[in-house]
């Protein structure tokens, strides 16, 4: 496997992606990986490597800026990094679309075949990418935030897959229903897989804070990556 850091930018903001792919003579589909609220750290980079093993180019994007990271368990710091994007979806869309442009320019990428996946905050990011009308085949939200931010949607052309813990306190049932209604009214090809007895951040082995609502589940993690593999095969 070949891995590298890649500098790109959003206007004056310097950003740094982590790119992973298995050596090849042919261009491969691109899978953007949007990180959780702690930034483009090891978890996101490992996810890029995971999709590389599946036969794609993994591109762990950067929402915060080169060298800007949160920390495990530091909810105040992580929230301070995420909140400007959660409250300004126009800014969020601009930042993730910069990653889409950079990812498509990777020489090993087939720019006509693109998906985006994201964890927690990153799930919000890839759903906003779809809401922006981006020309991508599909997006996958993994224990992501569904709530729309008030920025009007463009025509959504991406297929949408959401992998969700039913007991996630950050995405209550009314938010799920509102999202399903939003997607249906927009005519989107959408799926939502809800895992019973499962909380937020269920694919992250470091998640072990039931009081905060973040708990790892090996069963839900396994089901998630099987569904992800099936969805990417369908797309490409």
Shape: globular
Major sheet = 8 strands, mixed
Integer average pLDDT: 97
User: In CATH's first tier, which class applies?
Assistant: Alpha Beta
Helix content class: 25-40%
N→C terminal distance: 21 Å
Structural category is alpha/beta
CATH superfamily: Alpha/Beta hydrolase fold, catalytic domain
Order of strands across the widest beta sheet?
1-2-4-3-5-6-7-8
Q: What is the count of β-strands?
A: 10
CATH topology: Rossmann fold
Any idea how many domains? Answer: 1
Per CATH, the architecture is 3-Layer(aba) Sandwich
What is the helix/strand order?
EEEHEHHEHEEHEEEH
Which stretches of 5+ consecutive residues score pLDDT under 50?
none
Helix count? 6
As a percent range, the share of strand residues is: 25-35%
Would you kindly provide a written description of the structure presented here, covering whatever features stand out?
This protein has one domain: Rossmann fold. By secondary structure, it is α/β, with parallel strands linked by helices. It is globular, with a radius of gyration of 16 Å. Helices cover 35% and strands 26% of the residues.
């Amino acid at each position: 496997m070949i891995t590298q850091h890649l500098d790109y930018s959003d206007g004056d903001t310097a950003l740094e992606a982590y790119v992973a792919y298995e050596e090849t003579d042919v261009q491969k589909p691109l899978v953007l990986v949007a990180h959780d609220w702690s930034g483009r750290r090891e978890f996101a980079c490992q996810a890029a490597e995971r999709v590389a093993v599946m036969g794609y180019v993994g591109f762990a994007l950067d929402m915060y800026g080169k060298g800007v990271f949160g920390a495990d368990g530091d909810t105040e710091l992580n929230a301070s990094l995420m909140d400007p994007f959660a409250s300004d979806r126009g800014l969020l869309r601009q930042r993730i679309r910069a990653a889409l442009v950079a990812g498509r320019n990777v020489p090993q990428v087939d720019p006509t075949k693109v998906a985006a996946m994201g964890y927690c905050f990153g799930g919000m990011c890839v759903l906003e990418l779809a809401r922006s009308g981006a020309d991508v085949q599909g997006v996958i939200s993994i224990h992501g935030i569904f709530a729309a931010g008030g920025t009007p949607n463009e025509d959504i052309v991406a297929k949408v897959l959401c992998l969700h813990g039913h007991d996630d306190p950050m995405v209550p049932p009314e938010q799920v229903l509102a999202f399903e209604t939003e997607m249906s009214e927009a005519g989107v090809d959408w799926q939502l897989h809800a895992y019973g007895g499962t909380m937020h951040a269920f694919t992250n082995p470091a998640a072990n804070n039931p009081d905060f609502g973040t708990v790892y589940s090996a069963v839900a993690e396994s089901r998630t990556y099987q569904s992800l593999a099936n969805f990417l095969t369908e797309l490409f």
